[in-house]
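Researcher: Next sequence.
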Amino acid sequence: MRALLVTSVGVTCAAALTLPLAAPALSAPAAHSASARPPSLSPESPGSGPPSARTEAAPDEANEGGTLEVPEAPEAAPPRTGGTRAAAVAGSTQSLPLEPLAAPSDRAVGPAASGQGLDRRTARPFSLVGVVWDDAEAELHGTVQVRTRATGGTSWSDWQDVETHNAEHAADLGSAEWASGAVRGATAPLWVGDSDGVEVRVRPEAADPQHPAAVPLPEGLRLELVDPGADPAPEPAPAGRTVTPAAFAGNPVPPATTTAVPEVLTAESAATSAVNADLAPLGATVIPALTKAETEEEAAIVAAGAKPYIGPRPKIVTRKGWGADEKLRERNFAYTKSVKAAFVHHSATGNNYTCKQAPSVLRSIYRYHVKSSGWRDFGYNFAVDKCGNIYEGRAGGVAKAVLGAHTLGFNTNTMGVAVLGTYSSTNPPAAAVTAVSKLTAWKLGLFGANPKGKVTLVSGGSGKYSKGKKVKMNVISGHRDGFATECPGARLYKKLGTARTSSAKLQGR
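Model: Next structure:
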């Protein structure tokens, strides 16, 4: 039945699918049909929707799993009144071109350092900011700072730095996603909370004796103001039954009894959920945790050969659970052959968020990746918040080898995990490190990878390794191991040894 449903979704992309949905069970895996076909782990696995207008040529070892390019309809930003989000609002992006700034009074800085920006102004409410520019291959050598005003308030925040070196979080060079023509240069996004006022300044690096001429700023600088939209409504439960909606650690939700009503799933939403059909019911907001024994039994179906070294499946909040607008992403899914390694990142979005806000942070990053940066979907395969909640990232199935855009040069045969926050000088919470251990113990176990082991990967080309170079790395590596970057932050990077040991122990090694 599930196999039939997945196939049906693939050929009914333009139609809406209306099904009565029940809440996912939180204590046991979904029942498996004897005839149900497990999700394929091959690059040829289809997504949903019509054939793409363009597909990537036959992939080589360093660039597998062709991505599919599907044009999107223009988006109109919905109006907002005050700080209240209507249930129908799915988020919006304001894109404002930067203007030349007045030259600084300090003549020693030089005229080239005047930069670009925007003076204080009122805007429609937003919660995340970033700066983008036209050429994805151009680098921003300089500083980006913003300050904001909370919605309905009068005081302004201090200046906050935005991480400018972000090109290493991207699709591999030469991939269909990179060559789509839609990709732009971009800073890392910064979470600022619900705001309605903004000021920004972008200044190039000042000239010095070794660099007598300042490097010009990239062309087409724009400020992106992202509104994540409303949180998803609690899902209905069968009449008279008690159900716990998707709850997050640190933010308990009391049980509620409601009346069952049919829920309308778009074809895109149904397809995203259907690829997890062997793990949770269609439309589930949570994929429930399993014991080690239950996980080993399930692994025999979704990834034969994973036993005996696999960790218990952790609870994972699905894309529906955090409110992903499936119409933003490209319709088809992209896969690679295997998952041989996991790259750990920090999102560099700052630590000024609560765990209850984490779904809003995710929706903001997702929209920034797709609408502002021109990517096909959310870049990371998974995300983890400061309370240890684990979230499904790029669509395609949490048990599958989904091709991400997280580690330039090493997206093939790997997965990317982003810990929400900035951990350059702040220690990551123990709950977040534990979540990384649990997630990798399970996901790497599905593909027979040892968290404490080494693996040889082939570079697709990056700022650290040339294309085609074979590189030996830890199976659980930090982003900086594959690219010359500060990510995942010095403090989080120091915790990866702990994550490797714990992950291997959970696998039973």
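Model: The chain has a mean pLDDT of 79. The longest strand covers residues 116-133.
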